[in-house]
Amino acid sequence: MTRQMKLGVDNFSLRFNDWDAFQILEYSHQIGLNIVHFSDLAPFKSLDDGYLDEVKQTADRLDMGLEVGMGSICETSTTFNATKGSAVEQLTQMLHIAARFGSPGVRCYLGANADRRTPAPLQTHIDATIATCKAVRPLALDLDVKIAIENHAGDLQGRELKGLIERAGPDYVGACIDSGNPLWVAESPFTTLDHLAPYVVMSHVRDTAVWPHPKGAAAQWVAMGEGNVQIDQWAKQYMAQCPNTNFTLEIIGTLAPRLLNYLENDYWDSYSNSLASEFARFLQHVAEGHAYTRPVLTADWGSLTPEIRAALAVEQRRQLEQSVHFCRYALAI
User: Whole-angstrom Cα distance, residue 66 to residue 6?
Assistant: First the structure.
């Protein structure tokens, strides 16, 4: 029997609602989702066994699957949070939680776009990430939980993440593929999928609008079906190539457009190893795009008043529910 792909949501899509794990599960069930991906544990009031068991029991009662994740596992990254312990300690804890919840993997990442511009070269960060993975390999294999590394916030292009996974060992390391982040590194989401499809364990899916700008291009994440990167065709290809995974939405449409200034020389300091053929594929999206002009609430997440935060919470639910509807009826997921 062919497995039916399940539709889910990453809790980051709802971050400004300030809900706990139980509220997120109840809401996700209410809007017809099958999976909740807790890509961080901020909604958890405790990590005690009793609390975690209560979360799992609630998910089981609602017939909801659980996936889990964390932040950076690269101790040289600008994003690594050392206050939570070493990378190995943090990942070890999350592997046990994933096994407890029946999550197929632990979503994690190297870092962010800033790691492409540090005094230490990107390869230093890649090596540190691989070292963390290798340190927990026996545990990951024993628990049958994969380390699912995301192409995150402009840190790695698809080809680079593929190389990391293959060096670390695809028997216990895979990918959490993000369809929106490739546009941050001037990469088509189709290129990313071509590289990572054999290794995908989890997904973060959203649509993107991209269009020409005097300095290169501008890209804005939008609700599913409102972009111009052919997300419907990408979704069909994803479902065909990664049938044993879930289709997990991460809708982040409340951020302003991001400028990709690739017509300026300093842009390429961070992308000296990019392939012309892959960049050309991205340029096709730009050439076919136009500025996103639909009314949508965006804000600087770094300086939010309580009033703006409350408005963003409503906007996040609106965009997520619109995206769920598109996935159910346009993509038949």
Answer: 11
| Strands across the sheet containing 105-109 | 200-204, 173-178, 146-150, 105-109, 65-72, 35-38, 7-10, 247-249
149: β partners: 108, 175
Domain containing residue 257: CATH number: 3.20.20.150
58-96 pLDDT, tens digit per residue, is 999 999 999 999 999 999 999 999 999 999 999 999 999
Encoded amino acid at 1, one letter: M
Tokens of 300: 């600087």
Q: State the Cα–Cα distance between residues 214 and 300, nearest whole angstrom.
A: 23
Range of the domain at 108: 7-329
The whole-angstrom separation of Cα 329 and Cα 230 is 16
User: How many domains, in total, are found in the chain?
Assistant: 1
Tell me the C-alpha distance between 10 and 196, whole Å. 20
Distance CA 104, CA 209 (A): 31
Q: How many CA atoms lie within 13 A of 49 on its CB side?
A: 1
Predicted pLDDT of residue 4: 85
Share of the chain above pLDDT 90, in %: 98
Residue 2 within any structural domain of the chain? no
